[in-house]
Amino acid sequence: MSDTKLKRVDLIFGEYSNVKYKVLSETMKRPNEEILEDILESGLRGRGGAGFPTAMKWRLTAQSPSEEKYVICNADEGEPGTFKDREILTRVPRKVFSGMAICGKVIGAQRGFIYLRGEYKFMLPELMKELDGYNEHAKSIGLDFPIEIKLGSGAYICGEESALFESMEGMRGEPRNKPPYPTTSGYLGKPTVINNVETFVNVMMIMRLGAVQFKLLGTTDSRGSKVFSVSGDTPIPGIYELELGMPLDRFVDEFGDGDTKAVQVGGASGFCVPRKKFKDTVIGFEGVPTGGSMMLFNSSRSMYHVLHNYLDFFEEESCGQCTPCRVGCQQLRKGIQAVKKGDKQSHYLDQLMKLSESMKLTAKCGLGQSVANSFSSIVYNFKEEMIY
Amino acid sequence: MTANNNYITELVERYGRGRTSLMPILQGVVERNNFISDLDMTEIARELDLSAAQVYGTATFYAFLDTVPRGKYVIRVCKTITCDMHGKRRIIQTIEDMLKIKTGETTPNKKFTLLETNCLGWCHEGPAMLINEKPYSGLTPERVHDILHEYMNL
Ligand SMILES: Cc1cc2nc3c(=O)[nH]c(=O)nc-3n(C[C@H](O)[C@H](O)[C@H](O)COP(=O)(O)O)c2cc1C
Ligand code: SF4
Ligand code: FES
Predict the structure, then answer these.
(1) How far B36 CA sits from the closest chain A CA (Å)?
(2) Is the pLDDT of residue B1 over 60?
(3) Does B66 reside within a domain?
(4) Is the peptide bond before B127 cis (omega within 30 degrees of 0)?
(5) Which of A12, A59, A282, B76 is within CB 3.0–4.6 Å of A287 for a Cys-Cys bond?
(6) Could you give the CA distance from residue B66 to residue A379 in angstroms, rounded to a whole number?
C-alpha cells in the first residue's frame, strides 16, 4: 500500500535551524558566484507559475549596471485555488526574508519589498512582528538590506510582475510592454528581481542542504519539491508539499473522492485534464506546470459551469488595457452562453477556440494570453457539456 | 479645506508625498472611512502634486479601494469556483435575508455592505468571506448567522 502513496516532503515547512538566521549568516560569507552556481546546479525554476530559471534571472539582474536595485517577493497569490504562499508566510516567514536577503547580496540590491495581496491584510500584525525581528537581526550582523511590506488592494492582475511594479508606484495595475524586462527595468525603472514567495524559500533550502540534496527530489525538468494547494471535490483539501514530476493518476488516487472526472491544474489560467488523460499527465514543467493550484471536480459538476465561472473571473480581473483580452474575455463568455441556450450551433465553439488562440498570440500580458489554456482544454474535452 | 479631512494631512505626513505613497494613503482613507470621497481625492491630489484624474484613475482601478460610500462592515463573499461549489449561494442568501439587502447594497443604517469578490485564498475551507479585513471560512448558514449577530451587536 505505502509505495503507492506520493512522497511527502518536509523541506519548505521544516523547522528553522536552531541558531536564529544561521543559514543567512553563513551564506553572507560566501562569494556571489558560488551562490549562483549552487542555484544553477539545483535546477531551481520559479514557483510563481511560469517556471523561469531562478539562477538566470538573478545573474542577469546582477549584471545590470545600476546603483539602485530591488528585490521583490510576489505574495499577491490571486490565482483561484492557490493558498500556499499565505501558509508559507505564516509558518516560515524567516525563510522568505532570508531568501530575499541572499538575493539582495547576490544582485547588489539595497532594499526588499513584499507585495502582499489586500485579501491577506489580516496577516500584517504577525508578519510585521517577524519582519521587525529580521530587520533588527540584519542590522546586528551588519547586513544592510531592510525589507518592507506593500499591500495590494484586490486586483488579481497585480500578481503580474510589471503590473505589480506599477501598483507599487501608485499607478493603476496595468502591465507594461516587455521588453524591457525587470532584470534591467523593474520597480522605479531599476533592475529588479521579482520571485514568488516559495522560490525564495527554495533558495534558502538550497543554501542549507546544498544543490545535490535538493536535486534528489523531482525529475530532470522539475527539480525539488512543490507546495500544492488542493481543493474542490476531495476528502482531504489543504496544503501539501510533494515531489515535482508526479503522474496525475497517482495524485488523483490519493486526493480524489473516487469519482474524479477532471483536475484543473494551475488554477483558472491553467489546464483542465480529463479522467482519460490522468495516466499520461505529469505535473511539472515537462508536463502540465502549476503554481500549486490543484482543483478536483467529480462527476456531479458541470464543466460548463466551471468554465463560466473562470470566464467571469477573467472578465472582471482583466485590466482592460488591450482589446484582445478586454473584448475577448467577454465574447468567450457570451459565446458559450449562446451555444448553451441554442442561439448558436455547436460548431461555434470551434470559432471561440480560435478566438482564444488569437488572444494567446495578441494579448499584452499573461492574463489574456492564458485564458485559452482553460478555455480550450475544457471546451475540447467536455464539448457535450458545453452544448447540452 | 475643511477641518474634517485632517486625516489626509496625517496620512501624507506618515507616508510621504511621492507617488509611491499613493496606495498606502488611499488604503489609509478606506481603513478610516470605508470609502474614498471625491473631496478626499482632490485633497490627496493637491498634497501629492498630482492631478485629481491621476488619483481617481488609481483609486478606481482597485476593487478594495471603494469610491462609493460603504457600510462600516464590508462583507465580501467569495464567488470563485470552489466556494461556489461548496455552497456560496446559500451563504449569500442567508446574509441577504438577515440584512434585508441585496448583494451590492448597504443597509440603511450604514452598518453593512454586502459584496461578492474573487478567490480569497481559502478554497480548501470554502465557502469563505471577508468582513473588512478579517477572513471567515468553512461557512454554513448557521455559522454566518452567529458571525453576523456578533457584528450586529457591535
Ligand atoms: C495575471 C498574472 C497573475 C500572476 N500572479 C502571480 C502571483 O500571484 N504570484 C506570483 O508569484 N506570480 C504571479 N504571476 C507571475 C509573475 O508575473 C512572475 O512571473 C513571478 O512572480 C516570478 O516569480 P518566479 O520566477 O519565482 O516564479 C502572475 C502572472 C500573471 C500574468
Ligand atoms: S491581457 Fe488583459 S490583463 Fe493583460 S494587459 Fe491586456 S487587458 Fe490587461
Ligand atoms: S474559491 Fe473561494 S477562496 Fe478560493
Answers:
(1) 13
(2) no
(3) no
(4) yes
(5) A282
(6) 36
A333 CB near ligand 2 (under 6 Å) = no
- For residue A307, the chain B residue with the least C-alpha distance is B81
Query: Does residue B122 share a domain with residue B144?
Result: yes
Assess if residue B67 is contained within a domain.
no
Higher pLDDT, A357 or A215: A357
Instruction: Determine the residue among A74, A77, A83 to mutate to test chain B binding: the one whose Cβ has the most chain B Cβ atoms within 10 Å.
Output: A83
- β-strand pairing of B112-117 with A282-283: unpaired
Interval B46-105: pLDDT, tens:
999 999 999 999 999 999 999 999 999 999 999 999 999 999 999 999 999 999 999 999
Contacts of B134 in chain A (CB under 8 A): 122
Instruction: Answer whether B118 sits within 8 Å of A122, measured CB to CB.
Output: no
Q: Are residues B51 and B83 in the same domain?
A: no
What ipTM, to 2 d.p.?
A: 0.96
pLDDT in tens, A69-111: 999 999 999 999 999 999 999 999 999 999 999 999 999 999 9
> Which element (helix H / strand E) includes A42?
helix A32-42
Q: How many CA atoms lie within 13 A of A83 on its CB side?
A: 22
- For residue A1, pLDDT over 60 is answered with no
Tens-digit pLDDT profile for residues B20-44: 999 999 999 999 999 999 999 999 9
User: A231-243 burial, b if ≥16 CB within 10 A, otherwise e?
Assistant: bbbbeebebbbbb
* Average pLDDT for A29-47: 96
Structural domain contains residue A14: no
Q: Residue A229 Cα, ligand 3 centroid: separation in angstroms?
A: 11
Task: Give me the CATH number covering residue B94.
Answer: 3.40.30.10
- Interval between CA A300 and ligand 3 midpoint (Å): 19
Which domain, by its residues, includes B134? 73-152
Boundary-marking domain end, from A176, A191, A215: A215
Q: How many separate domains does chain B show?
A: 2
From the CB of B73, is ligand 3 less than 6 Å away? no
Within this chain, do residues B78 and B147 fall inside the same structural domain, yes or no? yes
| Residue A9 maps to a domain | no
Which of A193, A215, A237 terminates a domain? The answer is: A215
Give domain status of residue A252, yes or no.
yes
Q: Which three cell numbers stand for residue A3?
A: 509505495
- Confirm or reject: Cβ of A319 under 6 Å from ligand 2: yes
Domain hosting residue A236, numbered range: 225-298
Residue B87: closest C-alpha in chain A: A232
User: Measured between alpha carbons, how far is residue A315 from residues A50, A157, B12 in Å?
Assistant: 22, 11, 34
Query: Would B51 be classed as within a structural domain?
Result: yes
